[in-house]
Amino acid sequence: MMLLGSDHGGLDLKSAIAGFLSERGIKFKDCGTFDSTSVDYPDIAEAVAGLVSRGEAEAGILVCGTGIGISIAANKFPRVRAALVTDVFMAQMAKEHNNANILVLGGRTTTPDKGREIVSAWLDAKFEGGRHQSRLDKITAIEKKFSC
Ligand code: RB5
Questions:
Q1: Please, is 77 exposed, middle or buried when counting C-beta atoms within 10 Å of its C-beta (0-12, 13-18, 19+)?
Q2: How many CA atoms lie within 13 A of 102 on its CB side?
Q3: Ligand 1 pocket mutation, candidates 64, 72, 86, 104, criterion most atoms within 8 A of CB
Q4: Contact between residue 1 and residue 29 where contact means Cβ atoms under 8 Å apart
Q5: 82 membership: H or E segment, kind and range
Q6: What percent of the chain has pLDDT over 70?
Q7: pLDDT tens profile 102-148
Q8: Is 8 a catalytic residue?
Q9: Contact yes or no for 6/64 (Cβ under 8 A)
Q10: Superfamily for 2-146?
Q11: pLDDT tens-digit readout, 59-72
């Protein structure tokens, strides 16, 4: 299951992405926010990244104004690899090399059209494994070293 989430700064782009996922026949759960009232991006990051971290969802897409705050928050969760992406090449790399399980975009930096291209590239790309897996294993080792 794919999860979607944004704060107020990412609401419009999240709505565009939801439409795009529906067009592609991809099922998703929208974890909010649902209107333009100001909300705190760490709360939205937790709603999505918490479920991905616990293995209760496969992947997610998060949006805030720039994508910066919500990606910082999402990456606090074990097993989450949230990648803030601003173009198609980064989207491909985020999956092929980093196996990003959360794609992050900026609602104030990325147009709906560009957002669709980015989401499409990330969905279509495949993790390459090999040397990239050993690098991810090192990230997991760092997580374990610093967890209680
Ligand atoms: C909210 O105004 C804004 O700070 C937030 O959407 C995001 O850009 C934070 O990184």
A1: buried
A2: 36
A3: 64
A4: yes
A5: strand 82-84
A6: 100
A7: 999 999 999 999 999 999 999 999 999 999 999 999 999 999 999 87
A8: no
A9: yes
A10: Sugar-phosphate isomerase, RpiB/LacA/LacB (3.40.1400.10)
A11: 999 999 999 999 99
